[in-house]
Design goal:
six-stranded mixed β-sheet, single chain, 34 helices, 13% strand
Length: 882
């Protein structure tokens, strides 16, 4: 009845969500889905496993009570039905299903079977990739396994004689059979889901007593969520609990999510930023014992709202000394939410390497000595093998995080990196190798599910109808190589030009035409903007996004696309921020161009533009802190301070964080965003994409001047950035993708309020959300001021202020930051000196931890040199980068 084309599946799991939504009443989550998408990031095998209406229907034949029956849906379509009065819950149908898709419903025992949604087949309707289709002939073309466990060696071991494989193992076996026929797998001989044997649900492992060397295991949710549910703001939508882990003591405690904190910070980044301001005392070493590392999701994470799949990882940054956070998509965030948590708080430092496991309703710190030294891909795969479950979502660090590289990130799903500001280094300093999550009967409640479903459906329609949808789906963010080249702002040879003569060779269009083999997607994303690629020699990986593609091509003067794709995979494996790595390399090459740094200064490396051997070797040396890599691992600014000789003025940074791949001289609102963003030179704090639309009438209506839609004008850009900052915050809090919510102009204050009213049942409006956003932006500013920020640092590198672009459509332009910054402060409600009017306690609504003596030095052994590169910019820091 339903056919599956796994070549077209992007792994978005929208079929699961649609199925669960049809059967879960007021619940959200996947606990009632009849569809299971098995994913393998190593080989790009995304396999929907679902009831295929087998011709012989062994489940119906196996039912001794006659509770299962075939239903004629008309038009030649059939499905199954269950008679509750007759069903004895014996499990015979589950044992008979060759695909392992008939399983007991949560808490009821009756089997979940595909009833065709009354003929609507919601899973098929939800798939806009065409991977699922109605078609009996096609469905019958894929036979059921001859035996429940299979016999091929690649399928893993067969079940013992006389045993019947469980649903998990049969799903895995079927997925392997389908995956082996995928062209890029059959071409390379790769083994999908390698080494994983579904010997039982991961909950069985969690029920074991901690093995020797393991630490304390605690209840994962327990009464915490129940206690939170008594409070209005967190009664619906939220999981209702925070997991607070003291790694030093080896304890994990589930606590209710504070309703007042949720009301003030909303979710995700907001929860994290408020807690960091309130609970971390001033002046603490970012790699020390007292820094707090947080993983936050939001009240709409994992719901039917498209792209609600992101997480924020927050701590004090070891790269900048200010607020640090990274944001990533993929599938980890929904799994964490379904496991019962809105936030994970990690304190202290474990006495030995551990990873945190959330599964089966429990939280456990498990030994991770065997994972040390492994890269991100190896770590993820090994944890899944250990837990016998390909569905476990893993957030891990690589060797860079273990060795305290100050721009190390954390990565989930092999390629979804929360890369910026050094959160991987903080995680490594805590001796925490990974966090692994597997939800158990995942579901949470919405206040008005019907209304929420209607609103989410309208969001889907608006995304699909957007003028830029097809191009975004085909190319994702890699379209920006061509787009920024056409505007004359593609960073070339370290921002010396905005035009790269070889842009066509390394463009998203060329990537799609040469190496891309399929689409990839985050959880519940209808855009499917990522890609899986195959290179000569068999390297398979997901990505890259624009920043990484630009970073390894035009920014460093390289025109070899295949090399750039190999490096994109490598930085994900090592757990490095590709933006900061590209800045280090580009800065070195420009310094060499001007005679400021020589080959003898960098272990004999050739620093000519685009030298692939140097780029490759520097990446490994930095990740391992070997040779000159030890100095460079603290970042370009810290390295420049050691080299001296005028090299500091060539570092493209703001507040210690490296500038992204977009030359602000031709996008003035982005220039303002880099200057004022709370984590340093960053576009994602505002993403003022509107200035590229050219819609002058809408610009006048929204921001008071048509110049707001003119990328080369500076007027109106403060108002645009103030607005975009609030929408960017809402996407981070809900947790939505900015490429959709902001760049496609899908999310507004009022639409976010509508969604939250339906989800939370609270009388929130757009004005209230503006106040919440402003509250969090104030908190982040107050944290940075407390940690030594001089508002004079709200500026850009001298190149962007005084050196006009020399060629292309943006030629002759610089960024008039001094004309915009005062307007921005006024729009934010800050003083002329750039300070929020309110005190930290008023922003948090909670007591704020005061400074307790000297700066913490307890973490000095967390890396080879934990204090390197953290010297604060002097007062009047604007001069420091001239």
């Amino acid at each position: 009845m339903i056919s599956v084309d796994a070549r077209l599946c992007s792994g978005c799991r929208r079929c699961e969500i649609a199925c669960a939504s049809c059967h879960a009443d007021s619940l959200t989550g996947l606990g009632r889905s009849r569809v299971f998408v098995l994913k393998d990031e190593t080989t790009g095998a995304d396999i929907p496993v679902l009831c295929r209406s087998c011709r012989d229907r062994p489940c119906v034949s196996a039912c001794p009570a006659g509770a299962l029956a075939v239903v004629d849906l008309g038009g030649g379509r059939e499905a199954l039905s269950v008679d509750d009065a007759l069903c004895a819950g014996c499990g015979m149908c589950t044992a008979a299903c060759p695909y392992g898709v008939i399983v007991p419903s949560p808490g009821r025992g009756r089997p979940l079977v595909c009833d065709g949604c009354g003929g609507d087949f919601a899973c098929v309707a939800a798939c806009n990739m065409g991977a699922l289709r109605i078609g009996g002939a096609a469905a019958a073309a894929v036979p059921a396994p001859a035996a429940p466990c299979g016999s091929c060696a690649a399928d893993g071991p067969s079940a013992p004689p006389g045993d019947v494989a469980g649903p998990e193992e049969r799903r895995l076996t079927f997925a392997r059979r389908v995956a082996r026929d995928l062209p890029w797998i059959s071409q390379t001989g790769a083994v999908p889901f390698a080494g994983i044997t579904a010997g039982g649900p991961v909950a069985d492992l969690c029920a074991e007593q901690p093995r020797s060397g393991a630490w304390h295991a605690g209840d994962a949710r327990g009464s915490a969520a129940a206690a939170a549910a008594t409070h209005g703001w967190t009664s619906f939508g939220y999981a209702g609990a925070v997991l607070d882990c003291d790694l030093t003591r080896g304890t994990c405690e589930s606590q209710p999510l504070d309703p007042d904190l949720a009301a003030r910070g909303l979710g995700g980044r907001g929860l994290n930023s408020l807690r960091l301001l309130g609970e971390l005392a001033p002046g603490k070493d970012p790699l020390g014992l007292e820094n707090i590392l947080m993983i936050g999701v939001g009240p709409l994470t994992g719901t039917r709202l498209a792209t609600s799949a992101r997480l924020t990882v927050t701590a004090k940054s070891p790269q900048t000394g200010f607020l640090g956070d990274g944001n990533a998509g993929g599938h980890f965030a929904p799994e964490m939410k379904f496991a019962g948590y809105d936030q994970i708080v990690l304190r202290g430092r474990s006495p030995g390497p551990v990873y945190l496991l959330l599964a089966g309703g429990r939280a456990m710190l498990r030994p991770a000595q065997h994972l040390m030294g492994l890269d991100v891909w190896q770590t993820t795969d090994e944890i899944r093998r250990e837990l016998r479950d390909p569905g476990v979502q893993v957030l891990a660090i690589g060797p860079a995080g273990e060795r305290g590289v100050r721009f190390a990130g954390v990565v989930t799903g092999h390629s979804r990196a929360a890369a910026r500001t050094g959160m991987g280094a903080v995680m490594g300093a805590k001796n925490l190798k990974a966090v692994a999550v597997r939800a158990n009967a995942p579901e949470s409640r919405l206040a008005d599910p019907a209304r929420f479903a209607a609103l989410a459906a309208q969001v889907d329609r608006d995304i699909l109808a957007h003028a830029g949808f097809d191009r975004r789906k085909r190319l994702g963010t890699t379209t920006l190589v061509t787009g920024l080249q056409q505007l004359g702002i593609l960073p070339t040879r370290h921002f010396q030009s905005g035009v790269f003569e070889h842009a066509a060779r390394v463009s998203g269009e060329t990537l799609a035409a040469t190496y891309k083999v399929k689409h990839k997607a985050c959880y519940n994303c209808p855009v499917h903007c990522s890609r899986f690629y195959l290179l000569p020699g068999g390297l398979m990986a997901e990505g890259p996004e624009y920043e990484t593609l630009c970073g390894f091509t035009s920014r460093v003067g390289n025109d070899d696309l295949e090399f750039a794709l190999r490096m994109a995979a490598e930085v994900n494996r090592q757990g490095l921020d590709s933006i900061s790595l590209a800045e280090v390399i580009g800065w070195l090459m420009e310094c060499a161009q001007h005679g400021l740094i020589h080959s003898s200064d960098v272990d004999g490396l050739d620093l000519s533009w685009g030298n692939k051997d140097t780029i490759r070797r520097l990446t490994g040396m930095i990740a391992r802190r070997e040779g000159i890599g030890h100095v460079l691992a603290d970042g370009a600014l810290a390295a420049a301070r050691q080299f001296g000789q005028g090299t500091e003025r060539l570092v493209m940074h703001v507040k210690g964080l490296d500038v992204i791949c977009g030359d602000p001289r031709g996008i003035k609102a982005y220039g303002l965003t880099y200057a004022i963003a709370s984590r340093g030179a960053d576009h994602l704090r505002a993403e003022p994409f509107f200035e590229l639309t050219g819609d002058r009438e809408l610009a006048r209506a929204r921001f008071g001047t048509p110049d707001a839609a003119d990328r080369l004008a500076w007027r109106g850009k403060a108002a645009l950035v103030n607005y975009s900052e609030e929408i960017a915050f809402l996407t981070d809090a809900l947790t939505m993708c900015k490429n959709v919510g902001l760049c496609m102009d899908i999310l507004t204050h009022d639409r976010a309020a509508e969604l939250l009213r339906a989800a939370l049942g609270r009388p929130v409006d757009g004005a209230a959300l503006s106040r919440i956003a402003g509250n969090v932006l104030d908190a982040e500013r107050l944290f940075n001021l407390r940690e030594g920020l001089d508002p004079a640092e709200d500026t850009l590198p001298e190149r962007f202020l005084k050196e006009p672009l020399r060629e292309g459509p943006s030629a002759g332009h610089v960024v008039e930051i001094d004309k915009m910054i005062g307007d921005y402060y006024r729009g934010r409600g800050w003083t002329v000196a750039g300070h929020p009017e309110r005190a930290a306690e008023a922003v948090c609504g909670l007591p704020v931890v005061a400074k307790t003596g000297a700066a913490d030095t307890s973490g000095e052994d967390a890396s080879d040199d934990s204090s390197a590169g953290l010297r604060r910019l002097p007062a009047g820091g604007r001069e420091d980068i001239h």
